[in-house]
Automatic annotation (TrEMBL):
This protein's name: 1,2-diacylglycerol-3-alpha-glucose alpha-1,2-glucosyltransferase
Domain (Glycosyl transferase family): residue spans on this chain: 154-305
The organism's place on the tree of life at top rank: Bacteria
GO molecular function terms attached to this record: glycosyltransferase activity
Source species taxonomy: Bacteria, Bacillati, Bacillota, Erysipelotrichia, Erysipelotrichales
Transferase is among the record's keywords: yes
Length: 335
């Protein structure tokens, strides 16, 4: 059994969650002993596992179908998480949804990261088999590492007395960036760092304004990878993710794996696998967020980090690899 893992515009997507999903799929296949290729010109494959929705993606589906081979679509995108992102995304969203349904329904089966995103797809009227499989997490990258923490603190010239609230994401309103800035204004005693970047040409003026003019206690370092951000996950005092919509949130898995205290917006995607006060904290309003940030940073709330790590371990790359192997074998058998 050989699988073609296909990602259109891989270079453009490499800094996004979908880009990390490719790396995780490769690692998952390797862990489960699944032969794979990422070369669309390699005709020697048995299953197409496709992850993107561009014009080239449509062409490779057609080619695979003509060759009599099965297709598995990895549904990373929904109408709901397309909204409140790029300029005109809300106006385009209904058209985007129609395209998603048109593409997804050309598959033999669909993989999506969570039961929540599975329920959204079923709500679109899709009746294909849909499997909820986490994007997975490379646990060892987020083990405690003193050198990475030192690199993080040196990069931002942080003192040992500085208290840091961390977030990671694109510059999207959907990600809660406007709330992040407003909360930072009300907590000047802490430093707020937002890792990630989106070209300003592509984002609405309301978001451009806050990433161009923000409080002194906020840092926008852009896209940073390697030891700096891995040290940040461990070395910060709180990972704060106020996103309004996700299909899973790979950065949440990264923070959990790093044994960080995690604070999330209380939205459907995090149910039932993340539980307030058990393996994370949740809130719904800025007032609640501020109260819980202070409780986490000042250590007046109970720790949830060990339970959070256990949650990440359940979504390890090796576990994902075994799940993918079972799905591939089932789809091949039934094709």
């Amino acid at each position: 059994m050989k699988v073609l893992l296909y990602f259109e515009s891989e270079k453009a997507l490499q800094n996004s969650g979908i880009g990390r999903a490719l790396k995780h799929q490769i690692a998952a296949c390797e862990s489960a002993g699944i032969e794979y290729t990422t070369d669309p010109w390699d005709d020697d494959y048995d299953i197409l596992h496709i992850n993107t929705v561009g014009l080239n993606s449509e062409s490779i589906i057609k080619k695979t179908r003509n060759d009599g081979k099965p297709v598995i679509y990895h549904a990373h995108s929904t109408e709901e998480d397309f909204r409140n992102s790029f300029i005109l995304s809300n106006q385009i969203a209904p058209i985007f949804k129609k395209r998603l349904v048109s593409l997804y329904t050309q598959a033999d089966a669909i993989i999506t990261p969570t039961p929540y995103s599975k329920s959204l797809l079923e709500g679109y009227g899709i009746t294909l088999p849909i499997y909820a499989v986490s994007n997975g997490i490379q646990l060892s990258r987020y083990d405690y590492n003193e050198e990475k923490i030192k690199a993080f603190k040196k990069y931002f010239s942080l003192k040992d007395t500085d208290k840091v609230v961390l977030s990671v994401g694109l510059y999207f309103e959907r990600k809660g960036i406007l709330d992040f800035i407003e909360i930072a204004k009300q907590c000047p005693e802490y430093k707020f760092i937002w890792f990630g970047y989106t070209n300003r040409v592509m984002i609405p003026k309301t978001v451009r304004d806050v990433v161009d003019d923000y409080p002194d206690n906020v840092i926008f370092p852009g896209y940073v990878k390697g030891p700096i951000i891995e040290g940040a996950y461990t070395g910060a005092n709180c990972f704060f993710f106020p996103s309004y919509e996700e299909t899973e949130g790979i950065v949440v898995l990264e923070a959990l794996a790093a044994r960080q205290e995690v604070l999330l917006r209380d939205i459907g995607v995090f149910d039932p696998w993340l539980v307030d006060g058990v393996n994370c904290y949740k809130a719904s309003t800025n007032e609640e967020f501020i109260e819980k940030i202070k409780g986490i940073v000042e250590c007046t709330l109970p720790k949830t980090s060990e339970e959070g790590r256990r949650t990440a371990e359940e979504r390890s790359i090796s576990s994902v690899g075994q799940q993918l192997k079972e799905i591939y074998e089932s789809v091949l058998k039934n094709h």
